[in-house]
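Lab notebook: predicted structure, single chain.

Context: the supervisor wants predicted structures on file for every construct in the current expression panel, including those that have not yet been purified. This is the next one on the list. No modifications to the sequence; it matches the entry in the shared construct table.
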Amino acid sequence: GERETSEIYEKLLSRSFVKPHQRGFALHDVTRKWLCDSLIQNSKNKWNDLNIKAANYYQTSLEKLSITDEQSLDEWVELAIEFVYHSIQVDVVKGLNTFKDVFEYAQVYYPVGKRALLNVIKSDEKFSKTYPQWISYYEIRVNDDPDSQIHELQNLNSDQVLNFYISTSLGIILFGQGQIDQAIEALEKNSYYHNRIAEENLNTPELKMAKASCRYLGIAYRTQGKYDNALHAFSLLGDDPKALSDRARILFLRGN
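Prediction complete. Output recorded below exactly as produced.
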């Protein structure tokens, strides 16, 4: 009954392997690992069910979190780490897509959290064996030295999807460094993905990356005065508010 449950809970809290947490209490990392290993070996179905529930819980918690200050950003990273971890345990492919999404959010809003997120996929044996090139790519992304990033991205090659991410990141960094010709050369390689934006049948992370690549390509064209090329790039983004503003700006510059 309720009393018995309460007594068990109180006894559990008195144990040395239970520690206070801002959202209640948490198990010590060693204890958590032992319990996880035990579940994996003895009850794989239960392990999968628990990870599905945990991933859904942390996803919902992230969606509800209102980020207003540094403390809430720290909480976002903690939730995101758990969301990525449990997503990987459920399905390593879906886990990769989850990681892509939260990493790009961290890139924009909380760059200092990128390393902690990367450590989640690096420490997972199955993930690191399945996607070593993706880990190499994100290792480059957490490096804040543009020159080093450019050099390493230029020497990293993989499958079609990862090469798309590489050329997008390379193009954006080159653009930021004022190397417009090289940025255009890198971003033009992504035409296959640019042309699929309107279809919206890309995975969410790829769709976001395609839009970023296409917009930077349009801006790079505009910087060089190649207005027709820029208008075409922005038109691929459809009714995106920023793209509509960019197109209006070009029409103004051309005197239309």
